[in-house]
């Protein structure tokens, strides 16, 4: 599916470039969907005139190029198209104004998590991902054996359910697309009562579920969970390629670590890690002077006259 997506997307742009410079819905449908999904185009762009829609599209395409520091002036080019086909997180790059205004962090620093139907290896990998965030902030995490948790991780495919249907509704609003492109997504914390942040990982992808170095033909679950947990804690995408919150999955995802931006961002929300001072040891009192009358044996006595 991923290869077909790249071929179709490239063919659309080549065809459009050869015919004329006008952007049409038919030729640019896939790219429109991509730019809308990640926040560069609003959902109501279809209501404007064709010429206005072309102008809006070019601006959105240019904004995408600027966001990822890609060369271009808003006109499609191979480098941008290839970049758009890279595996990535399904969370938006550009948030709506109302979303920005309502962003919040968890009102507590001790959070529970649950990995639905995970085996021991997957649990260890999730634990390692949470540890990266707790090592650099005041956050602490505890695994829950039930779904009664603050953060729930689960494997999902295509159109999929939420785990916590009572709070989050039955269906997830973002379906997966099969192998390639979107690898996972997560929800930011809100002030909704009983809110649960869900991390959904696409089960159709080839995953390396261990914390060691991943082979070239698989994605690191450790890296992906670290990124998605960042969203669950309140972090959005970061433009820096060294950041674990960079939206595009890097080719090399090992070792997994937070860069200085990630550390500064998580500490801005929850504070620095609390360092507990080691307990002070009270020195033991000196042994009492012996009672000479109770001794069985005396080897010698020193008498010092007029000395105190």
Automatic annotation (TrEMBL):
GO terms for biological process: collagen catabolic process; extracellular matrix organization; proteolysis. Zn(2+) 1 binds at residues 160, 185, 200. The keyword Signal applies. Residues 102-272 form the Peptidase metallopeptidase domain. Residues 272-295 are annotated as: Disordered. The active site is at residue 228. Keywords: Calcium, Hydrolase, Metal-binding, Metalloprotease, Protease, Signal, Zinc. InterPro entries: MetalloPept_cat_dom_sf, Pept_M10_metallopeptidase, Pept_M10A, Peptidase_Metallo, Peptidoglycan-bd-like, PGBD-like_sf. SUPFAM superfamilies: Metalloproteases ('zincins'), catalytic domain, PGBD-like. Zn(2+) 2 binds at residues 89, 227, 231, 237, 245. Its cofactor is Zn(2+); Ca(2+). Binds 2 Zn(2+) ions per subunit. Ca(2+) 3 binds at residues 177-178, 202, 205. Ca(2+) 1 binds at residue 205. GO terms for cellular component: extracellular matrix; extracellular space. Ca(2+) 2 binds at residue 150. GO terms for molecular function: metalloendopeptidase activity; zinc ion binding. Belongs to the peptidase M10A family. This is Matrix metalloproteinase-19-like. It comes from Temnothorax curvispinosus.
């Amino acid at each position: 599916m991923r290869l077909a997506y790249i071929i179709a997307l490239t063919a659309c742009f080549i065809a459009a470039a050869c015919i004329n410079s006008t952007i049409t819905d038919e030729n640019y449908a896939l790219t429109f969907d991509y730019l809308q999904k990640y926040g560069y185009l609003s959902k109501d762009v279809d209501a404007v005139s064709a010429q206005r829609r072309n102008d809006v599209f070019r601006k959105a395409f240019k904004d995408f190029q600027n966001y990822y520091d890609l060369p271009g002036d808003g006109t499609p080019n191979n480098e941008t198209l290839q970049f758009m086909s890279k595996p990535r997180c399904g969370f938006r790059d550009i948030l709506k104004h109302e979303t920005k205004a309502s962003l919040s962090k968890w009102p507590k620093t001790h959070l529970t998590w649950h990995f639905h139907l995970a085996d021991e290896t997957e649990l260890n990998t999730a634990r390692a991902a949470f540890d990266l965030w707790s090592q650099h902030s005041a956050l602490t995490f505890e695994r829950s054996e039930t779904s009664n948790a603050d953060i729930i991780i689960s494997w999902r495919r295509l159109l999929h359910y939420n785990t916590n249907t009572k709070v989050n509704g039955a269906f997830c609003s973002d379906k997966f697309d099969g192998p390639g492109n979107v690898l996972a997504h997560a929800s930011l914390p809100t002030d909704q009562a009983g809110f649960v942040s869900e991390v959904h990982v696409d089960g159709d992808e080839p995953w390396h579920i261990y914390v060691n170095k991943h082979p070239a033909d698989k994605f690191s679950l450790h890296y992906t969970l670290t990124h998605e947990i960042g969203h669950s804690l309140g972090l959005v995408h970061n433009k820096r390629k060294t950041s674990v919150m960079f939206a595009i999955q890097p080719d090399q995802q090992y070792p997994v670590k937070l860069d200085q931006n990630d550390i500064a961002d998580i500490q801005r929300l929850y504070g620095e890690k609390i360092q507990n001072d080691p307990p002070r040891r009270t020195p033991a009192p000196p042994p009492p002077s012996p009672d000479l009358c109770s001794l069985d044996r005396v080897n010698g006595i020193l008498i010092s006259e007029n000395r105190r």
